[in-house]
Amino acid sequence: MSVRIIILFISSSLFLSCSKEVIIDIPGFASQLVVDGTIETNGNPLVLLSQSANIYSETNLSSYLNNFITNADVKVVRGVDTFNLAPMNIGDLPLASQKKLAEMLEIEYNEVILLPLIVYSNLELIATANSSYELIIDYNSKIYKSTTFIPLPSYLDNIYWKPEISNPMYGKSWARLSDNSTQYDAYKWEVKRINKNTDNEDLDVIFRKTNDAYFDDRFFNGQSFDFTYDNPLKRKDSTHLKEYRRYFRMGDSVVVKFSKMDLNTFTFFQKKSAQLSSNGNPFGSPINITSTISGGALGIWAGFSPCYDTLYCIP
What we know:
By secondary structure, this protein is an alpha+beta fold. It has five helices and 15 strands. It folds into two domains: 33-150, Immunoglobulin-like, CATH 2.60.40; 158-270 and 307-312, Immunoglobulin-like, CATH 2.60.40. The protein has helices at residues 3-18, 61-66, 95-105, 109-112, 263-277, and strands spanning 33-40, 46-51, 73-78, 81-89, 118-121, 131-139, 142-150, 158-163, 170-178, 186-193, 214-216, 224-229, 248-249, 253-261, 298-312. It has a six-stranded mixed β-sheet, with helices on one face. Strands 5-4-3-6-7 form a five-stranded antiparallel β-sheet, with no helix packed on it.
């Protein structure tokens, strides 16, 4: 027997004799309350409640809908005023709230109105800027709380459309912003077209955002600068060139919804966006999305103060 074979035999024996069975105790699944709530100026509060699902449980629309909660006691406190939120069918909400819900869930408006979901809302509570709103949920003898602050809005200095040199029929949306140096600011960018189709209907029913719609002033506090965003809108127009899919086309009329939020709201959505962007990337770092709800619940109670401007895509 050669020396090399003897050494290999001894090494293999030592390796096998040092092996040890490792038993990992994986904790059992414990369902948690999940909160998806939003409130923005000139609008009503919208709160969806559900139970978290086991990752190994069956995944289909029926099981998804069965996780929603309809028997909680929900209220919002603003200053000395308390507003009870009632469970409501989507069809009983105002049109603006229905569209906002579609934006929250990131599905089409004509799809969201068909969902048999219960939404907690109060049509008498109209949110205002520069105010704090405390969400209180009483469910299964447990109390969950969260507070969001709606800051005063910040207005864009200018918005404009810049056509591409390679094809002047297409261009990007641009804006100029002067950030306030005396405060923390976080922003969200959303758009929708208001051109009419052949039936005289708006091309876009709801606002849409890109994956990087949220940003704050950590790197440009107090500065004035120009920035651009891709077009996130869906098109069914076969004449729109595919290589310019994320561009606006000459003649588009686009409403820009530019919103402000507090730090907790920005942190939640910025981390959520980063997690979605890195999903499936084997080299991506794990991202822990911090809940803004106390008491052991998951989710977000978010406040926004939007302002609106119209971008006309003409040279």
